Amino acid sequence: MFAELDEPPLDPILGLAQLLAGDTSPDKVDLGIGIYHDDQGRAPVLDCVKAAERWLLETQPSKRYLSSSGNADYNAATRALLFGDGSDGFARSRTIQAPGGTGALRLASDLLRRLSPGGRIFIPGPTWPNHPAIFKATGHELVVYPYYDIETGKVRFDEMMATLGAMGAKDTLLLHGCCHNPTGADLDAAQWSAIADLVSKTGAAVMVDLAYLGLGDGLSEDAAGIRLLAERLPEFIVATSCSKNFALYRERVGALTVVGASETNAVRAHAHALPVARTLWSMPPDHGAAIVAHVLGDAELRRGWERELATMRDRINTMRNRLSARLAGHGDRDYGFIARQRGMFTMLGISPEGVETLRREHHVHLTSSGRVNVAGLNEGNVDRVADAIAAVGNA
Ligand code: PMP
To answer: A Pfam family this protein belongs to (predicted)?
Structure first.
């Protein structure tokens, strides 16, 4: 069985890590892998997480299974973060814990296949490469809708809406809730509203991927899109991740939240998702979710988390301003969009050859798609990176 296998394709993330490790320059800059770095280039464990881990170590009475739905406090805290404690969206939703945002998306994809067989999933072009991979793995047909204008750094909203006009009642629309990966270009309130109108007309389902809550403009600001959907649509689903906003990457903390027309409908949808989760991982990992539940449930730790999150967010936005301003000094192109975009990523239209030159000649590492992780910039490297990007000529 194994002997006849072809050489597997190189894992792009592994390839990137190898190239970075092999670069011996003391000036090397990692703008590739989607991880937040502090001003010293480190990706530390948050203080609130350390405190919750200490608490967990001291007090956890057992490691017995919880349930396929996971940690109930974490699930309730997730719904409260999304819609606001006691809100209508909170009441009309139910959450299942999942291993990371990836697990939540896979669960959603399997569930959609069961509930809406034959339905297509409309995904933005470009999107996080794991989106098409996950949805194809569950047998979905995909349609790519135009999303990003690489010249202006804006959303191609009219073209997007024209393509989405072809959605049918069995189809699903995938949206990024905030901090679009890989472009950083988000929908504004009027655009969310127009999408809600369109979806109401077509009857299509909506799935929102919210992997960067709190890293754009703030916790409630970044939830504005899904809160608007909760006001306007009877039902939709949200996949969330605490990988970035709690820096819990390897602990695999995510969730799938289903919003129904009524609480009863949400409870029913949740009950249908549970047996799907059972076939995927049976029980989700507990450690990270227990940490998040404790931090969000303890007033002091929660304040600490909000401060640490604000530090990350402010640093990203400062680096956006710095990169945009420095690039502006290099020619005619208007780089104001970098400062207006949100989240960890932007795309400047750097070709694969340009990416290679940046790595070889300037020790600046990006993914081959030309995505820039702004959170890898700091006071010590931002000017040098901007000058290198300008030097490769096609930025
Ligand atoms: N969605 C998007 C858009 C992402 O960028 C990521 C992480 N790169 C995820 C989901 C999933 O993250 P994780 O599985 O690590 O929680």
So the answer is: Aminotran_1_2
Burial zone of 65 (CB within 10 Å; 0-12 exposed, 13-18 middle, 19+ buried): exposed
> Which residues are CB-neighbours of 64 under 8 A, at least 6 positions away?
none
pTM value is 0.96
Q: Looking at the DSSP assignment, which residues form a beta bridge with residue 173?
A: 122, 206
171 touches 204 (CB < 8 A)? yes
Residues having CB closer than 6 A to ligand 1 are: 34, 100-102, 128, 181, 209, 211, 241, 243, 249, 254
How close is the Cα of 262 to the center of ligand 1, in Å? 29
Ligand 1 atom closest to Cα of 242? 16
**329 alpha carbon – ligand 1 mean position (Å):** 34
Q: Provide the CATH topology of domain 65-297.
A: Aspartate Aminotransferase; domain 2 (3.40.640)
pLDDT of residue 331: 81
Element (H, E) at 124: strand 120-125
Q: Which pLDDT tens digit goes with each residue over 10-23?
A: 777 778 888 999 99
Substitution candidate for ligand 1 out of 102, 106, 212, 371 with most atoms within 8 A of CB: 102
Measured in Å, residue 332 CA sits from the centre of ligand 1 at 35
CATH code linked to domain 12-45+313-391: 3.90.1150.10
- Per residue in 22-51, pLDDT (tens digit) is 999 999 999 998 999 999 999 999 999 999
Say what the ipTM of the complex is.
0.99
